[in-house]
Amino acid sequence: MFNLISTVKIQMIYPAQHAISRRSVLGGLATFAALPAQAQTLPANPDVVILGAGIAGLTAAKTLMKAGHSVALVEAANRIGGRAFTESHTFGAPFDHGCSWINAAQVNPFKWIAKQNDFTLLNHSDASSAHFVGDQRANAEQRSANNNGWGAVEQALNAAGQKGLDVSAASVIPADNPNTGVAQTWIGPMDWGVDFKDLSTLDYWNSEGDDPSFIVKEGLGAVVAHYFRDVPVSLNTPVSAIDWSGKGVRVKTTRGTLNAKACIVTASTGVLNAGTIRFAPDLPDWKDQAIADLPMGLLAKVALQFDGARLGFVPNQWLDYRVSHATPTPACYFLTWPFEFNYMVGFIGGDFGWEMSRAGPAAAIDFALGEVVKMVGSDARKHFVKGHLTDWATNPNTLGAYAAARPGRYSARDALARPLEGKLWFAGEAVGMPYVALCNGAYKSGEDTAKQLIRSHLLK
Question: What DSSP element (H or E) covers 302?
Answer without folding.
Answer: strand 299-306
